[in-house]
Amino acid sequence: MAALMLQGTGSDVGKSVLVAGLCRVLANRGLRVRPFKPQNMSNNAAVTEDGGEIGRAQALQALACRVAPHTDMNPVLLKPQADRTSQLVVHGKVRGTLHAGNYREARKALLGEVLTSYRRLAADCDLVLVEGAGSPAEINLRAGDIANMGFARAANVPVILVGDIDRGGVIAAVVGTRAVLDAEDAAMIRGFLINKFRGDPALFADGYAQIEERSGWRGYGLIPWLRDASRLPSEDAVVLERNPKAEGGRTLIACPMLPRIANFDDLDPLKLEPGVKLAMIPPGKPLPGDAALVILPGSKATIADLAALRAQGWDIDLLAHHRRGGAILGICGGYQMLGRTIADPHGIEGPAGSAPGLGLLDVETELTHEKALRPAQGTALGAEIRGYEMHMGVTTGTDTARPFAALDTGPDGAIAQGGRVLGTYLHGLFANAELRRALLERIGIASTGVDYAASVDAALDAIAAELETHVDIPALIALAQEASA
Questions:
Q1: Which of residues 104 and 321 earns the better pLDDT score?
Q2: pLDDT at res. 126
Q3: Is 332 considered catalytic here?
Q4: Do the strands 53-55 and 45-47 form a parallel or antiparallel pair, or are they unpaired?
């Protein structure tokens, strides 16, 4: 089983993007390559053709391989619902809810299922590229680990450690990781990559050599800042915390950053529109009064996020926006919030109970145990669309007589009388250029009709070209094949 695993000196060092880029490199070289992440934690997920869900990053990596996403690519997915509670998804299906205290015990039983998925993938390709989670230096989490060294050792997969030079201290991060690992874990690491370098590589030549000398690991490349990575869908909410200001846009679209925001990559295609200024509004800031459209995004804990929205005073801002004639779009959990009530009688997303909604759509939602997970296609606002559904809950009411979309699975969503408030369960809607055009025209923006899928694919090719230049690809392939010999 030829395989190679990328682990990091910490979170957000660029592992997901590098795996995606390397997947495209190897696919371009004619290899049948597959991505794999034993355990992911993210509320940004994608629906697979086999009717399950995996982390968004693995779906992107599958695209880089030019294959369809499959649940085996991410057998364990944790979707945070509260500070200490996560929904557990195994092989694409919800298996229950875990608390921080009991997950360490639960994950021990999951290693066998992780290895089963890995072996199925490996049997059907030339090489598997594995992405770790967090860092192996978190030795307090080592017992029972299935995400980093626990998997690497069980599957005998060699590891490349990724360090992020942009955050500073990369020499200490790599060498320090070597210092805290036990001997058997350290032996699994065969080299390192330094990521996100800016400037003249010659300036870091001595630092690079010092890492090799002090760690005993070989360097496989110094990777520059990959500007095209900004064109890829983001894996998790870390990117929202940076929230760079949009520039050059003309019409404002605002989205509140809810505590359990989910699938916010739905909004990424809007960034391609020069007539749009997309503003992600953090807690403590009001919704801007000059927004033409406010989008309520998906949520992993709808009632709790609705309470947080009210605590921020965003409900007042939203109602004022509505009175001024502004448009509102709710997606998935955001759609549920726009209704009259949300009921959770079974305690699916938290304590059992119900809450009044914002009352902008004449609909009611009841959360149910059954989770809708399916690709979808049809028409919406006069445009052909493709996307996916990923939600728990059934929404009914008068405004559903004016559905947002006519899908192959039936009518979806609702539009309020007057047409200024819209709700839908459909994710991925803005990736459809004609639907994006139709919605933007409602708020007076001329769309360029840019093909989002083509933009993402071009970004993957650009990243692959950079990696071909700055990484010793033949040596990495040889290392992966050596493990299978």
A1: 321
A2: 97
A3: yes
A4: antiparallel
**Does the structure show a pLDDT above 50 at 244?**
no
Q: How far apart, in whole angstroms, are the C-alpha atoms of residue 88 and residue 107?
A: 10
Q: Is the pLDDT of residue 255 over 70?
A: yes
DSSP for 28-82? HTT--EEEE-SEEE-S-EEE-TTS-EEEHHHHHHHHHHTS---GGGSSEEEEEEE
Burial of 82 (0-12, 13-18, 19+ CB in 10 A): middle
Within 13 A of 472's CA, how many CA atoms are on the CB side?
Answer: 14
**Averaged pLDDT, 331-351:** 94
**Distance, C-alpha 75 to centroid of its chain:** 15
Reduced to 3 states (helix: H, G, I; strand: E, B; else coil), residue 16 is: helix
Beta strands (DSSP E) in 140-199 are: 159-164, 189-197
What is the pairing mode between strands 3-8 and 159-164? parallel
Q: Do 366 and 398 touch, CB atoms closer than 8 A?
A: no
Give the per-residue pLDDT at 238.
Answer: 47
Residues 340 and 19 sit within 8 Å (Cβ to Cβ)? no
Q: What is the overall mean pLDDT for the chain?
A: 93
What separation in angstroms does the CA of 230 have from each of 235, 299, 436, 455, 463? 12, 23, 20, 11, 11
- Distance between CA atoms of residues 383 and 330, nearest Å: 18
CB 236 within 8 A of CB 42: yes
Two tokens at 198?
């800016």
Q: How far apart are the C-alpha atoms of 429 and 421, rounded to whole Å?
A: 16
pLDDT at 237 over 60: no
Which of these is catalytic: 91, 332, 391, 470?
Answer: 332
The span from the CA of 122 to the CA of 1, in Å, is 6
pLDDT band with cut points at 50, 70 and 90 for residue 101: low
Query: pLDDT band at 89, cuts 50/70/90?
Result: very high
pLDDT cut 70: percent of the chain above it? 96
Which of 70, 321, 427, 470 does the annotation list as catalytic? 427
Q: Which residue from 198, 183, 201, 131 is spatially nearest to 161, judged by alpha carbons?
A: 131
